[in-house]
Amino acid sequence: MKFQASTMICAGALLLPLAGAHATATPEEARRLGNELTPVGAEKAGNKEGTIPAYTGGLSTPPAGYDKSRGAVRPDPFASEKPLYSVDAKNMAQYADKLSEGAKGLMKLHADFRIDVYPTHRTVAYPKSVLDNTVKNATRARLTEDGLGMTGARAGIPFPIPKNGNEVMLNYQARYQGLAYQVPRYSAYNVDSNGKMVLATQGSWTMEYPYYDESREGDTTGVLNRARANYSGPARRAGEALLAMDPINYADKGRRAWQYMPGQRRVRLAPDISYDTPNPGTNGMSTYDDVNLFNGKMDRYDFKLVGKKELLVPYNTYRFSYNDKPEDVFQAKFINPSVVRWELHRVWVVDATLKEGARHIYSRRTFYVDEDSWTVMASDQYDGRGQLWRAGFAYLNQAYDAGTPISTAGHYDLIAGSYYINIWPGAGGVKIMNELQADAVWTPESLAGQGVR
Question: How deeply is 273 buried, as exposed, middle or buried, from its count of CB atoms within 10 A (0-12, 13-18, 19+)?
Answer without folding.
Answer: buried
